[in-house]
Specification:
About 50% of the residues lie in helices and about 5% in strands. It contains 5 helices and 4 strands. The structure holds zinc ion (2 copies). One zinc ion binds next to loops.
Length: about 140
């Protein structure tokens, strides 16, 4: 009995098929890990070419990338910048005149450009009140409608 016949008697065709399936499965995982690294590094603003080459090292490359990748997605970063700009804008001004679009501040009762009534004035303390407020938040006077 030579080695190959021992091999054949131990390894059944089912086992061989299973082995092939495992190899294909690992191969697919390997390909997915490369695609993931390239895509993810691109989304995070890293260099996808460099990381793509590193990820060619089976699994260790993708593992190294998952340890070293930038923590934030580029789109998240953009969103945060946008959020910040919006908040700054909100701080700078309260809104715009509904009629002419002129920037108006929180305490304005009237648009300085076109004279549109923007807010009601509290009859007691004189603060500017949003039209939908039912009570003055500054002096607790109910708003007469
Ligand atoms: Zn106006
Ligand atoms: Zn008031």
């Amino acid at each position: 009995m030579d080695f190959s016949s021992i091999f054949d008697s131990i390894i059944t065709p089912e086992m061989r098929m299973f082995g092939v399936a495992v190899v294909i499965f690992i191969g697919i995982l390997y390909l997915i890990s490369i695609i993931w690294v390239i895509r993810d590094s691109y989304l995070r603003g890293s260099n996808p070419v460099i990381w793509g080459v590193i990820s060619l090292v089976p699994f260790l490359g993708a593992f190294a990338y998952s340890m070293l990748r930038p923590p934030m997605l580029l789109s998240d970063r953009d969103e945060q910048d946008l959020d910040f700009t919006l908040k700054q804008r909100e701080l700078m001004k309260y809104g715009e005149c509904g009629k002419c679009g002129y920037p108006v501040e929180r305490e304005y009762l009237m648009c300085p450009r076109c004279g549109t009534q923007l807010k009601n004035e509290c009859s007691v303390c004189g603060h500017a009140l949003n039209p939908d407020w039912t009570v003055c938040p500054f002096c607790c006077t109910p708003v007469k409608r």
